[in-house]
Backbone:
């Protein structure tokens, strides 16, 4: 589950980076009017905000994944394992809610 979300976020990040590069290239071409330049700058800034948000999300997923790997190495009872799974799911849900706001 975490890996799927991480892969999705990574693919979205790559797409956003490509789109931002296209916008920057268009802006640097010099063939834009004043209003187009303003619109391009707004789009570039918006893309940058999305990129930063995705990077933070990926960082959080990496932390969750590392924690799950560390926890997987520890011997534990069934109750401890279920509690850890529920805690990890709650953390992911909370992070998703924060990133969607």
Residues:
């Amino acid at each position: 589950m975490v890996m799927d979300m991480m892969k999705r976020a990574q693919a979205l990040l790559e797409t956003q980076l490509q789109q931002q590069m296209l916008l920057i290239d268009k802006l640097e071409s010099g063939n834009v009017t004043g209003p187009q330049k303003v619109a391009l700058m707004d789009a570039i800034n918006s893309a940058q905000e999305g990129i930063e948000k995705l990077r933070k999300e990926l960082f959080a997923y990496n932390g969750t994944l590392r924690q799950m790997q560390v926890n997987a190495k520890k011997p534990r009872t069934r109750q401890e394992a279920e509690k850890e799974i529920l805690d990890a799911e709650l953390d992911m849900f909370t992070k998703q809610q924060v990133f969607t706001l």
Q: What stands out?
A: The chain is about 90% helix and 0% strand. The helical segments are 2-29, 34-73, 78-100. Residues 6 and 58 are 6 Å apart (CA to CA). The radius of gyration is 19 Å.
